[in-house]
Amino acid sequence: MAATIYAIINQKGGVGKTTTTINLARVLCAAGKGVLAIDADPQGNLSSIIAAEAVEKDQLTFADVLLGESIADVEIDGIWDGLSVVPGNRNTDKAIQQLQTEHGREYRLKEALGEAAERFDVILIDCAPSLELHTINALAAAHRAIVVCEPGKFSLDGLGELQQSFDSVARYYNPLLTVAGVIVNGNRSTITHRSWTEDLIEKSPWRLFAPYVPFWSVIQDAQEAGLGLDEWPDDKGRQAYEMYTKHLSELDEIDARPHLEKMFPKHDYSTLEV
Fold first, then answer.
1. What is the number of helices (H) and of strands (E) in the chain?
2. What's the whole-number average pLDDT of the chain?
3. Long-range contacts at 102-106 (CB < 8 A, ≥ 24 apart)
4. For a FRET experiment, which of 27, 84, 107, 233 has its CA 20 to 30 Å from that of 218?
């Protein structure tokens, strides 16, 4: 069965797209899934964290996929069993410029994933904070988009702009694209954040995944250490891991209760709500 392809997206930077991609990938790998993580952001942050080896300047990357290289020739091992990575770097910007006059430039990634989709269970594309050609390639290739945002006064405006972009992509490039929902990052227990979250619930064109991911330092600390949240020696790591597991359960990619019981056998999940 071919992989489900997800584009992790927001046109605004700093909202946690890469963090979300990493933690969803970790849960999937821990559940025995074969995962391909694609770094479609020229900043290359995803690659620097979950690639098993440092990405060299002359190494094949996502840019080369856009220019015709196969996924199999570009992918490298990730830091967890079952994880492969298509690394990204600033060469993506150069590839975009090179493709400006090429026909079919919006479908390069979709074509490349034709073969690769048969070798994985899930493919996660970490999109750049823009709606340029590399992001259009991600949306044209994806089955589902996951929007990542933080509570804030600009969030609703950003979701409206994304809705227009999704409508355009569905019309011209990928009529089967759907938006799976919104993952809310950086949530705080303040009156202001509660108000912003209520606005998101009321006005978002898509469902918001529960629970909202809190502003916990453990999530960033584990990421910087190259560890899964389940590997972090702190109970908050377990709690955060549960949240991403529940998100994947809502996506029908994993059965949350048996997975969590296997991962944390000392914890009682008999009353877990999923």
1. 12, 7
2. 93
3. 105/66, 105/133, 105/137, 106/133, 106/136, 106/137, 106/140, 106/173
4. 84
Q: What is the pLDDT of residue 1?
A: 65
Strands laid side by side in the 178-184 sheet: 76-77, 83-86, 35-40, 122-127, 4-9, 144-149, 178-184
Interstrand relation of 76-77 and 83-86 (parallel, antiparallel or unpaired): antiparallel
Helix axes 235-250, 17-30, angle to 10 degrees: 90
Are 76 and 56 in contact by the 8 Å Cβ rule? The answer is: no
**Do the Cβ atoms of 135 and 66 come closer than 8 Å?**
no
For the record, the structure tokens of 238 come out as 């377990």
Position 68: which residue type?
G
Phi, psi of 101 (to 5 degrees): -105, 5
Q: How do residues 255-268 score in pLDDT, each as one tens digit?
A: 999 999 999 999 99
